[in-house]
């Protein structure tokens, strides 16, 4: 995996991350479509993800829990699928469950994430754009890690791609 760049856009309240992979778009698509593959790479290195629901259809959704390196549960998160165009484009609303301060109880609602996959020779260029509701949410996202840490995060996909 090559991390091409991370581009914050404070005016649009977004961050765009671009990576390149040595696998065709159809294969990279599967790391998003298959819950078992997602569990192996989504989240910071050392964190564990478990999907309790993965209805990869519009208007379906996924629910998952994340545990930290020490095993402590960090919360329940969700994705609501807004658009699925295999193997090129995925748009989701994501956030925390209402019981944990997200959703309809007045706390910040979902952010939007758009994934685009494009052929790049025999490989794939993946562009992920996350859009946030407030400048504070954008800043929190940007504080989550350096470019090196984000390269490790997205680089976890390589192991999943190699395993098939």
Give a verbal description of the structure.
The chain has a single domain (2-163), classed as Alpha-D-Glucose-1,6-Bisphosphate, Chain A, domain 4, CATH 3.30.530.20. Helix content is 26%, strand content 43%. It is an alpha+beta fold. It is globular, with a radius of gyration of 15 Å. A hairpin with a 3-residue loop joins strand 5 and strand 6. An eight-stranded antiparallel sheet has the order 1-2-8-7-6-5-4-3. Helix 1 (25-33) packs across helix 2 (35-41). Residues 100-108 have low confidence and may be disordered. 15% of the residues are buried.
> Which regions have little confidence, pLDDT < 50, spanning 5+ residues?
100-108
Approximately how much beta-strand content do the residues carry? 35-45%
- Run of helices and strands: EEHHEEEEEEHH
* Derived structural class: alpha+beta
* Helical content class: 25-40%
Number of helices: 4
Largest sheet: 8 strands, antiparallel
Order the strands across the largest sheet as they lie in space.
1-2-8-7-6-5-4-3
- Number of DSSP strand runs: 8
> What is the name of the CATH architecture?
2-Layer Sandwich
Distance between the termini: 15 Å
* Integer tally of domains: 1
Which superfamily, in CATH terms, is the homologous superfamily? Answer: START domain
Averaged pLDDT? 88
Q: What is the overall silhouette?
A: globular
| The CATH top-level class label | Alpha Beta
Cα Rg = 15 Å
CATH topology: Alpha-D-Glucose-1,6-Bisphosphate, Chain A, domain 4
């Amino acid at each position: 995996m090559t991390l091409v760049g991370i581009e914050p856009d404070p005016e649009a309240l977004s961050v765009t991350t671009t990576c390149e992979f040595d696998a065709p778009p159809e294969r990279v698509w599967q790391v998003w479509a298959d819950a078992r593959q997602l569990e192996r790479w989504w989240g910071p290195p050392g964190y564990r993800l478990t999907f309790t629901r993965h209805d990869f259809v519009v208007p379906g959704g996924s629910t998952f829990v994340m545990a930290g390196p020490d095993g402590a549960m960090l919360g329940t998160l969700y994705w609501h699928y807004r658009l699925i165009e295999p193997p090129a484009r995925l748009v989701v609303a994501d956030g925390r469950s209402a019981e944990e301060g997200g959703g309809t109880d007045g706390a910040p609602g979902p952010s939007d994430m758009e994934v685009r996959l494009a052929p790049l020779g025999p490989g794939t260029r993946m562009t992920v754009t996350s859009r946030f509701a407030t400048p504070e949410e954008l800043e929190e996202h940007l504080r989550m890690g350096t470019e090196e840490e984000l390269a490790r995060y997205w680089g976890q996909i390589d192991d999943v791609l190699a395993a098939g």
